[in-house]
Design goal:
α1 runs antiparallel to α2 and α1 packs across α3. The chain is mainly alpha-helical. The longest helix is centred in the first third of the chain and has 16 residues. A hairpin with a 6-residue loop joins β1 and β2. It is built from five helices and two strands; from the N terminus they run αααββαα. It has a two-stranded antiparallel sheet with strand order 1-2.
Length: about 110
C-alpha cells in the first residue's frame, strides 16, 4: 500500500469512496472502506486531483494592465501587475509613477 497522502494514495481513497457510494453504501460505510477519512477530506482531495495541483491555485498567464503605466502586458501569474518595461526602469521601487509626488505623510492641515 502506498504511503499516506501521496497523490496515488489520495486517488485510491477517492476512487474507493466513490465506488462504495455507487454500490449503495452509506457515507459512514464508504468512509470506513477508504481508511476512515472524512467526506470533507475526500472532497478536498477530489478537487486537488481534478486541478492536477496540490500547491494551490494554478498560475494563470493572461493580459493585465500595468499598475504603473496602465499599458496592457502579458503577466505570468495573478500577482504580476507591473510590466517588464516599468520593472526595468532605473527608479523602480514597486510604486506607481508619480505616487511619491501626490502622497501625503501624516495629518493634513
Amino acid at each position: 500500500m502506498p504511503a499516506k497522502f501521496t497523490d496515488q494514495y489520495r486517488r485510491q481513497v477517492v476512487t474507493r469512496y466513490d465506488q462504495a457510494r455507487r454500490d449503495g453504501a452509506s457515507v459512514v460505510e464508504a468512509t470506513a472502506r477508504c481508511g476512515g477519512h472524512s467526506p470533507g477530506i475526500i472532497a478536498q482531495w477530489r478537487s486537488m486531483l481534478a486541478d492536477d495541483s496540490c500547491d494551490g491555485p494554478r498560475h494563470e498567464s493572461k493580459r493585465r494592465q500595468c499598475l504603473r503605466c496602465r499599458r496592457d502586458f502579458k503577466s505570468a501569474w495573478a500577482g504580476e501587475r507591473i510590466c517588464p518595461c516599468c520593472k526595468a526602469g532605473e527608479h523602480y521601487d514597486g510604486l506607481p509613477a508619480g505616487w511619491g509626488a501626490t502622497a501625503t505623510v501624516g495629518v493634513a492641515d
